[in-house]
C-alpha cells in the first residue's frame, strides 16, 4: 500500500500550492488591516504636535494675562479718580445748594 514517490511529491506540491495561496490571501488581509493600526512613530508625531500647541497656548495665555493685569490696574486708577471727582463735585454742589436755600429762606 505504499504510493510511488511521484504521487507523494505531487500531493506535497498540491498542498504547498494551496498553502501558498492561503498565505498570499492572509498577506493581503494583513496589508489591508495594517493601515488601520497606530504606529509608535505616528504617536510620537502627534504627541510632539500637541506639546507644541500647548506651549503656544501657554505663551498666548501668559501674554493675555499680563495685558489684562495692566488693563485692570489702569481701570482701578481711573475708577479711583472718578470716585474722588464725583465725591468732590457732590460736596461742592451740596454746599452751593445749601447756601442758596439758606439765602432764599432768610429773605
Describe this structure in words.
The structure is a single chain. This protein has 107 residues and is mainly alpha-helical. It has 2 helices and no strands. The protein has helices at residues 5-34, 40-106. The chain is rod-shaped. The chain starts with a helix and ends with a helix. The mean pLDDT is 88.
Terminal Cα separation, in Å? Answer: 151 Å
Give the DSSP E fraction (strand runs of 2 or more residues): under 5%
Strand/helix succession = HH
Overall geometry:
rod-shaped
Radius of gyration: 45 Å
Largest sheet report? none
Structural class: mainly alpha
Fill in the keyword field for this structure.
107 residues, mainly alpha, 2 helices
How is this structure best summarized?
The protein has two helices and no strands. With 107 residues, it is an all-alpha fold.
Write the layout of secondary structure elements.
Elements: H1 5-34, H2 40-106
